[in-house]
Amino acid sequence: MINSRQGHLATLLADGQHVLITGSTGSDFSAAELFSLQGKTPCTPGVKGCPWRDWEMFTVTQADWGDVPDGVNPASLLFAGYASVYAPWGVFIVGNQSYFEMFFGSADTLNAYLPSGGIPAALDSDLVDPLSSASGEFGGDVAALKLDVDFSHAGFVHGIQPVKFGDLRICGLTTTPDFNNLTVRQTLDPLNLALSSAPTSDSIADLDFLTHELEGSFFQGWASAFAKDHLLNGTCP
User: Fold this and answer.
1) What's the rounded Cα separation, in Å, for the pair 58 and 151?
2) pTM of structure
3) By C-alpha distance, which of 33, 13, 36 is closest to 22?
4) Concatenated DSSP letters of 184-226
5) Would you say the C-alpha torsion 89, 73, 65, 107 has a positive or negative sign?
6) 177 with 163: CB under 8 angstroms?
7) Where are the domains of the chain?
8) First to last CA, the chain
9) Tell me, what's the pLDDT at 43?
10) Distances (CA, A) of 199 to 122, 129, 138
């Protein structure tokens, strides 16, 4: 699997300990530079006391999912993997059927919708292949998080650690503590419910902030402060 970051390609080598960085345009790595994790990790990444390091996990934001495909960027992965990830019907849905949902029938229509801007809010109607919605940025963030979880589970998006992004557990939140002890995958149910316009004890602004932090937790392979503080590979302490 190849990951991309700011014009670079990161390919995990067979030894499981090195990543080959290629395709630099003069940024932080030179062409074909070998990024080494310096041997085996002395502790299990993502457990308490062993914070995440760069390249160990990988997530994609809604802006990158909605970018113009160029053959190597995350938008290209959306087109390459959509049919198999969402087989057999090829339908991508966010929201909840008891209230309102957005339906996308192809990678083209989902890519055209992303990124979605505007004030975070709930949906106010069912939509099919929309270019925008009343949900503003929130709808796009929930869609991006679902893509991160689904494409990680299918093996299209990952870092050098074998754990799936959706299996990481959320810990230590204070603004939205009802999400503590949930896995990233499990957050999609309450987030989709809130997006659908169902009543929620959390504000949409707070939920969108959480969703945005999750989708950006390993943006382009970089472990964010949120990831190091709140995402664990295992149980919460």
Assistant:
1) 11
2) 0.84
3) 33
4) HHHHHHHHHHHHTT---SS-HHHHHHHHHHHHTTTBTTPPPHH
5) negative
6) no
7) 1-40, 46-232
8) 32
9) 76
10) 10, 25, 16
Does residue 190 contact residue 183 with C-beta atoms inside 8 Å? no
- pLDDT at residue number 106: 98
Is residue 67 within 8 A of residue 38, CB to CB? The reply is: no
How far apart are alpha carbons 16 and 200 in whole angstroms? 43
Exposure class string for 3-22: b at 16+ Cβ within 10 A, else e: bbbeebebebeeeeebbebb
Q: What angle do CA 52, 59, 77 make, to 5 degrees?
A: 140
Three-state SS across 13-68?
A: CCCCCEEEEECCCCCCCCCCEEEECCCCCCCCCCECCECCCCCCCCECCHHHHCCC
* Residue whose C-alpha is closest to residue 70's, from 2, 153, 166, 170: 2
Helix (H) or strand (E) holding 237: none
Reduced to 3 states, what is the DSSP secondary structure of residue 113?
helix
- DSSP type of residue 183: B
- Cis bond upstream, residue 115 (ω within 30): yes
pLDDT, averaged in runs of 10, over the chain (237 residues): 49 45 38 36 75 94 97 94 97 98 99 98 99 99 99 94 96 98 99 98 99 97 97 94
